[in-house]
């Protein structure tokens, strides 16, 4: 058996892993779109390595486009097998894939018009709405913690990962001709005590782990500190008569912001006459899906609901779905909060709001999520004096705030804590889903903490063998074995003490021979424990 790293190798986006079984069947874990630089996004058009005609299944860890966005492309190319994901992920994919398809069509139409003016050929979209609709029909919901043989020789278990509603880590037991290989995919690991979603769950032991490192070199601010900072910015903008403009990812980050602002309203910390515009049809639809699935909330959010409050709604919140409603926001003259996508400010309605407000000194732009290289959001974080929006230079006179405590990704210490139970001697850990400097930093820290584990940073399209071993051996965990060895060593020491006294009834020669044998057994036990 072997595995090919199709994406998220020394970069954050494009998560996808092709697993080929001994009998040449193959399947994918994640099928994400590359996002960021033009060079990186060109990879989205390279379909050959995905072996579409041979694919038996696709497993999706969560709904974000960098983990799922190329599925409609594969369907366009002929894929018609099952797509396994958690129930909330399936619901979110229905809206995210359609939204992505519309974006692909619009961008292709815009580029085609430009090409025609230059005498060039029209551009085909990466995929169309019909492809997304076809992909939706292939979705197969799977429950968390349910160990099933979803393919012959492939036992799968989705484990809650926190991060966003429905996000999972995936544990696979692959049955080959000569045994099994257990491989784990962290997916995107959330944070302990994150809003709305439960804490990340625990994965069963693995032989190989693919571990995300988005923030492998950083430590986040605490959530309470970040909430306090956000509300201080809101109060300052209100006093100045300005707007708070927040580029936010449609799924999870937007809902967390609504949750925080709803609580601020209940606590009297949000001005009654300061509207909060959610100007993203996608985020509005995602919020409705969140509201429809409270069974996947954490206990604190369920308690708010049980008390009769609405954690994802409050009087100040205004949903703006139509283009006309969106345009009217920029005619609103008083202080307001505007939440819009995309989260990296390189697409969507947020571009219009930045164009209308970046040049105003009383505007506050709040960055609350990861910003990939070469995106508008990243330029703002790095202090660019101007940015290009709709091919026009816009001066940055607004105050730009970066609050990383809202991240739905675990930081360095949280990643280490999540993976620690899996770090037995001999495990191979592939560090993925991070910028290279984050991976290098995390590798050094993790290697020092877990010296008997092999850490590796794979390259794009790198192929790895997944060596099997008999399943009974795979079930023997070193921690359990070491405990038994310690007990045996203690019993041997007690027996040696008893043999050394005259009352044992043994002759000196017999006692000497037994003591030698016990000493050898004790040394062997000690070596086993050290291993």
Overall average pLDDT? 92
End-to-end gap: 27 Å
Name the CATH superfamily classification of the largest domain: Ribonuclease Z/Hydroxyacylglutathione hydrolase-like
Strand content: 15-25%
- Content-based structural category: alpha/beta
- The CATH architecture of the largest domain can be named as 4-Layer Sandwich
The CATH class of the largest domain: Alpha Beta
Tell me the CATH topology of the largest domain.
Answer: Metallo-beta-lactamase, Chain A
How does this model look, in words?
By secondary structure, this protein is an alpha/beta fold. It is built from 17 helices and 22 strands. It has three domains: 2-218 and 408-474, Metallo-beta-lactamase, Chain A (4-Layer Sandwich); 223-406, Rossmann fold, CATH 3.40.50; 478-530. 37% of the residues lie in helices and 19% in strands. Helix 4 runs antiparallel to helix 8. The longest helix is centred in the first third of the chain and has 31 residues, at 87-117. The radius of gyration is 27 Å and the shape is globular. The model has no long low-confidence stretch (mean pLDDT 92). It comes from Desulfoferula mesophila.
């Amino acid at each position: 058996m072997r595995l090919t790293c199709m994406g998220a190798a020394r970069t954050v986006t494009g998560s996808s892993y092709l697993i080929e079984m001994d009998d040449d069947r193959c399947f994918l874990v994640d099928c994400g779109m590359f996002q960021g630089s033009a060079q990186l996004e060109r990879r989205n058009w390279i379909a050959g390595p995905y072996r579409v005609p041979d694919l038996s299944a696709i497993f999706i860890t969560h709904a974000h486009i960098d983990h799922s966005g190329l599925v409609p492309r594969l369907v366009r190319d002929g894929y018609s097998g099952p797509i396994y994901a958690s129930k909330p992920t399936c619901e979110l994919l229905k809206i995210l894939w359609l939204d992505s398809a519309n974006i692909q069509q619009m961008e292709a139409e815009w580029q085609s018009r430009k090409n025609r003016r230059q005498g060039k050929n029209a551009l085909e979209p990466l995929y169309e709405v019909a492809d997304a609709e076809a992909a939706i029909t292939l979705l197969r919901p799977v429950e968390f913690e349910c160990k099933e043989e979803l393919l012959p020789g492939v036992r799968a278990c989705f484990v809650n990962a926190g991060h966003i509603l429905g996000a999972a880590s995936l544990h696979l037991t692959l049955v080959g001709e000569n045994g099994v290989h257990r491989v784990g995919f962290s997916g995107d690991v959330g944070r302990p005590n994150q809003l709305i979603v439960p804490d990340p769950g625990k994965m069963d032991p693995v032989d190989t782990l693919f571990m995300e490192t988005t923030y492998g070199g950083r430590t986040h601010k605490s959530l309470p500190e970040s909430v306090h900072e956000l509300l201080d910015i809101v109060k300052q903008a209100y006093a100045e008569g300005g707007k708070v403009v927040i580029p936010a990812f449609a799924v999870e980050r937007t809902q967390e912001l609504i949750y925080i602002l709803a609580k601020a309203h209940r606590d009297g910390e949000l001005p009654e006459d300061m509207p909060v515009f959610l100007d993203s049809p996608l985020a509005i639809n995602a919020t409705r899906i969140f509201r429809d699935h409270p069974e996947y909330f954490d206990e604190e959010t369920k308690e708010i609901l049980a008390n009769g409050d609405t954690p994802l709604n409050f009087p100040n919140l205004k949903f703006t779905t139509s283009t006309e409603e969106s345009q009217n926001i920029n005619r609103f003259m008083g202080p307001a909060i505007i939440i819009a996508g995309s989260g990296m400010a390189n697409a969507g309605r947020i571009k219009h709001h930045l164009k209308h407000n970046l040049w105003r000194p009383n505007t506050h732009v709040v960055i609350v999520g990861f910003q990939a290289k070469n995106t508008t959001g990243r330029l703002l974080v790095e202090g660019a004096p101007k940015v290009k929006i709709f091919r026009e230079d816009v001066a940055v006179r607004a105050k730009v705030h970066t609050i990383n405590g809202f991240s739905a990704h675990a930081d360095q210490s949280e990643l280490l804590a999540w993976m620690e139970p899996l770090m037995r001697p001999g495990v191979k850990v592939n560090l993925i889903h991070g910028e290279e400097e984050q991976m290098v930093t995390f590798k050094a820290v993790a290697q020092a903490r877990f010296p008997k584990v092999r850490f590796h940073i794979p390259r794009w399209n790198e192929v790895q063998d997944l060596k099997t071993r008999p399943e009974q051996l795979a079930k023997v965990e070193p921690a359990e074995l070491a405990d038994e060895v310690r007990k045996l060593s203690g019993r041997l020491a007690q027996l040696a003490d008893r043999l050394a006294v005259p009352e044992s009834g043994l002759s000196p020669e017999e006692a000497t021979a037994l003591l030698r044998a016990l000493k050898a057994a004790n040394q062997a036990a000690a070596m086993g424990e050290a291993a």
